[in-house]
């Protein structure tokens, strides 16, 4: 099993996970995805969240912010959506995406676990 497959399975094992993906934000394509909800189209989520990442990176550049994004959180009434850019040299240009059921998820724990998964991801 590849490191990517293991990362996706680890992400889905987080309490409340609905769907997860590893996305190339240069192309907007998901390199891998897993999900337990037919209501969440992970290909659409990958493409749409690519635009979120690109917009934030452009804004940070215009503001001369020289830091890296840890994660981007979008909360809606029933879900959390977490976008975490991969910072390692082998994963540059990628981000982890996770949708969580808000009623079942522990946001702090999910962010912590996602950071650990991101640090160990090699693509």
CATH superfamily: Dynein light chain 2a, cytoplasmic
Cα-based radius of gyration, to the nearest Å: 14 Å
Beta-strand content: 25-35%
What top-tier CATH class fits best?
Alpha Beta
As for the CATH topology, it is Beta-Lactamase
Number of H/I helices: 3
- By DSSP, the count of extended strands is 5
CATH architecture: 2-Layer Sandwich
User: Average pLDDT, to the nearest integer?
Assistant: 92
What structural class do the secondary elements suggest?
A: alpha+beta
Distance between the termini: 13 Å
The total tally of domains equals 1
SSE pattern: HEEHEEEH
Q: Kindly report the spatial arrangement of strands forming the biggest sheet.
A: 2-1-5-4-3
What summary fits the major beta sheet? 5 strands, antiparallel
Name the helicity range: 25-40%
Taken from the alpha-carbon principal axes, the silhouette is: globular
Low-confidence parts: none
Question: What would you note in describing this structure?
Answer:
The protein contains three helices and five strands; from the N terminus they run αββαβββα. It is α+β, with helices and mostly antiparallel strands. The chain has a single domain, classed as Beta-Lactamase (2-Layer Sandwich). The chain has a five-stranded antiparallel beta sheet, sandwiched between helices. A hairpin with a 4-residue loop joins strand 1 and strand 2. It starts with a helix and ends with a helix.
